[in-house]
C-alpha cells in the first residue's frame, strides 16, 4: 500500500514563482499542485486531499485573502 504525501497547493499569478517553488518542493519529494489564479484554484482543486495552501496575497481577480475567505466558507481547514 502506497501512502501519498500531503499536497502542497501554490496559488500565484507569477509563472516564474510557480515554476521555482514547484521545482524546489518536488526536489524535496513533495507532491505539488500549482494554480495561476485564485479562481483556478477554487474551481480545479480537490479539497478532499490533505495538505496545505500557499497563497499569493496580491493577485488580479481574487486576492489571497479573498481566496482564504472562500476556503473557510467551504469548510476547507487545511493550513
Overview of this structure, please?
This protein has about 80 residues and is α/β, with parallel strands linked by helices. The protein has three helices and three strands; from the N terminus they run βαβαβα. The chain has a three-stranded parallel sheet with strand order 2-1-3, sandwiched between helices. Strand 1, helix 1 and strand 2 form a beta-alpha-beta unit. The longest helix has 13 residues. The radius of gyration is 12 Å and the shape is globular. It starts with 6 loop residues before the first strand and ends in a 6-residue tail after the last helix. The mean pLDDT is about 90.
Question: What layout of secondary structure does this protein have?
Answer:
Blueprint: E1 7-11, H1 15-27, E2 31-35, H2 38-44, E3 51-55, H3 64-73
Parallel strand pairs: 1-2, 1-3
The dominant shape is globular
Q: Which structural class do the helices and strands define?
A: alpha/beta
Secondary-structure element pattern, one letter each: EHEHEH
Query: Got a strand count?
Result: 3
Helicity level: 25-40%
Instruction: Report the major sheet.
Output: 3 strands, parallel
Radius of gyration: 12 Å
The N- to C-terminal Cα distance equals 26 Å
Q: DSSP helix count?
A: 3
Strand order of the largest sheet: 2-1-3
Mean pLDDT: 91
Query: In terms of per-residue confidence, which ranges show pLDDT below 50 for 5 or more consecutive residues?
Result: none
Sheet-strand content, in percent, reads: 15-25%
Amino acid at each position: 500500500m502506497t501512502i501519498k504525501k500531503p499536497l502542497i497547493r501554490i496559488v500565484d499569478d507569477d509563472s516564474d514563482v510557480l515554476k521555482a517553488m514547484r521545482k524546489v518542493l518536488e526536489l524535496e519529494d513533495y507532491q505539488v499542485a500549482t494554480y495561476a489564479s485564485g479562481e483556478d484554484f477554487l474551481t480545479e482543486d480537490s479539497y478532499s486531499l490533505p495538505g496545505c495552501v500557499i497563497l499569493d496575497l496580491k493577485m488580479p481577480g481574487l486576492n489571497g485573502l479573498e481566496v482564504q475567505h472562500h476556503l473557510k466558507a467551504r469548510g476547507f481547514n487545511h493550513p
